[in-house]
Design goal:
The chain is of the alpha/beta class and 222 residues long. 38% of the residues lie in helices and 20% in strands. Strands 2-1-3-4-5 form a five-stranded parallel β-sheet. The protein has a three-stranded antiparallel β-sheet with strand order 6-7-8, covered by helices on one side. Strands 9-10 form a two-stranded antiparallel sheet.
């Protein structure tokens, strides 16, 4: 990710300059802050892609800075620390940090860690997808799920197997009832109605099973 902006918060000026030199070799824009009291105002007024944040700083320490940044921003934060006893708190996400590096560290290692978080940030945020579990007879979307009957599960599985394809009632009957029993169109319509109502409980803003007049039904995320 070229042209990324990295904020280095480090009170040791020689170390901060060394880090800056290595990061700039990657064609990244690098800003350096030596005092803890200046960090939050900088982040509020500038677009930053990754923050390298030392724990021990004059003014406000890195732990408190990290906690306060997290109140308004999800920018990736890599903590740098020379104190081993702080690592458990950092790793436990108590302060909202994404990663940590122990001093003394290799500048190349730091560059590698920054690249990881830049790649992570560059990934598109994909929306959740509808997931059908035919074993548990549940369908889920994001953090929500609802239980289905066996018939409803089979109906949904058939339609999801070929999204946008219109299945006739007879085709759906054959997929649902594998024992050759004779059922009416109204039976399928009744099951579809109940299935659609259940899907609405986990995805209320979108119709997923569509009725095609005179033809049948299809699954499609419109």
């Amino acid at each position: 990710m070229k042209n990324a902006r990295i904020l280095v918060v480090e009170d040791q000026e020689d170390l901060a300059q060394l880090i800056k030199d290595y990061l700039e070799q990657e064609q990244w824009q690098v800003d350096v802050i030596h005092h803890g009291d200046q960090v939050e105002a900088f982040i509020q007024n500038h677009m930053v892609d990754v923050v390298l944040l030392d724990v021990m700083l004059p003014g406000k320490n890195g732990m408190d800075i990290c906690r306060d940044i997290r109140k308004t921003s999800d920018v990736p934060i890599i903590m740098t620390t020379a104190r081993v006893d702080e690592i458990d708190r950092i790793l436990g996400l108590e302060i909202g940090a994404n990663d940590y590096v122990c001093k003394p560290y290799s500048p190349r290692e730091l560059v590698a860690r920054v690249k990881v978080w830049l790649r992570h940030k560059a990934k598109p945020c994909l929306p959740p997808v509808l997931k059908l579990d035919t074993d548990s007879l549940k369908v889920g979307y994001g953090d929500s799920q609802v239980e289905l009957t066996l018939v409803e599960s089979r109906l949904l599985k058939k339609m999801m197997s070929q999204p946008s394809r219109v299945f006739s009632r007879n085709q759906l009957m054959d997929a649902v009832y594998d024992d050759g029993r004779v059922v009416s169109d109204r039976t399928i319509d009744s099951h579809i109605k109940k299935l659609r109502a259940k899907l609405k409980t986990i995805k209320p803003d979108q119709e997923l099973v569509h009725a095609i007049y005179g033809c049948g039904y299809k699954y499609e995320e419109s």
